[in-house]
Amino acid sequence: MPVRAALDVLLAAARVVDGVEEVDTLAANGRVLAVDQVSGLNVPSADNTQMDGYAVRSVDCASGAATLRIAQRIPAGTVGRPLEPGTAARIFTGALIPAGADAVVMQEQCEASGDQVTVKHAPQPGEWIRRAGEDIVAGAVILPAGTRLRSQELGLASSVGLARLPVRRRLRVAVFFTGDELAMPGEALKPGAIYNSNRFTLRGLLENLGCDIADYGIVPDSLQATRDTLRAAAAQHDLIITSGGVSVGEEDHIKPAVEAEGRLNMWQIAVKPGKPLAFGEVRRDEGNGNAFFLGLPGNPVSSFITFLLFVRPFLLRLQGVTGAVEPRALPLRADFDWPKPDRRNEFLRARINDAGGLDLFPNQGSGVLTSTVWADGLIDNPPGQAIARGDIVRFIPFSALQY
User: Fold this and answer.
1) What is the pLDDT of residue 156?
2) Could you count the other beta carbons within 10 Å of the beta carbon of residue 197?
3) SS3 131
4) Cβ atoms of residues 16 and 317 within 8 Å
5) Which residue in 360, 363, 307, 306 sits closest to 333, CA to CA?
6) What is the pTM of this model?
7) No. of H helices and E strands in the chain?
8) Percent share of the chain, pLDDT over 70
9) φ/ψ (deg, to 5) at 91
10) What integer pLDDT is reported at residue 215 of this predicted model?
11) Do the beta carbons of residue 339 and residue 308 sit within 8 Å?
12) What DSSP designation does 307 have?
């Protein structure tokens, strides 16, 4: 199945998790809003100054060299008296504009001496004044339901006094890893064994996306053990993610296990690396619906890339994100040649060089995990598309994919 079609299948199947909870705004980073958030006030609440300077009546300063009496001092957080004709108010950034003033002259354009100030500028009405409601009008929706909250959204919510926010509950994700050859760091490696790097990569990616994770560890290479773990994981989780065992070898038990415990809706994608990607559902006991299933390849680069391309958008939809969830590519110049493309959609590890172009990691093998650390992102190269030095390619930065 082509990459675009596979992603469409996943996004069409996604069901937003049920359950809403209210959390402190300080603890809402990464969560997804369940309800539109409306401002109860104007921001700014009243006209205020953008600059340190002097609040004046513009008509008093039309000469460009007016000398005015400094009648008052207005720091931020205080309310000044109405401004009388022929006077100025010393004012500081964020302070409310006094009644009667219609402009602010920055202090760099003024010269103060004692209780007088010479204004060396002819201001226009409204100059350096932030108007009430200029940013937010009371009653406006500032954050719609389905927004994934980042630091800037939290700042916006707090700016209108929202101390708590209604968010979707966290997605419950179960993970396990198949392969008798797998060992954990700290254990001695037996002949033919490898360390289970995918456990650390996938858990880190899931943590970045705010999931509640249940880790079932390394499952033996047997059909019965795989089925047993699928059943246990389905009981309490929204999604099951596995790594390894999704190919067609005699020791690859994921496909028959999922078919026995539920169904496969999609298997094998025209993507390199990452062809053996599986998507389906696993039954829960007593008619309690199904848990989604995503089986990722065992090769570490394939597992990493298929998570970014397919699992991440699917997770965001399950969490209730309504905006764009698909990877976004930037047009950048290739500073390399790629003369022998694959018939599948390739995702090449590359990084941005000092000239603003892209360098290619020399070994694009699916087991070369160092390429994911060296690279800044992925080149989305269409099937059969050769790349010549100087061509413009589609580049997806990791910075837009891992959080």
Assistant:
1) 97
2) 16
3) coil
4) yes
5) 360
6) 0.89
7) 8, 26
8) 99
9) -135, 150
10) 96
11) no
12) I
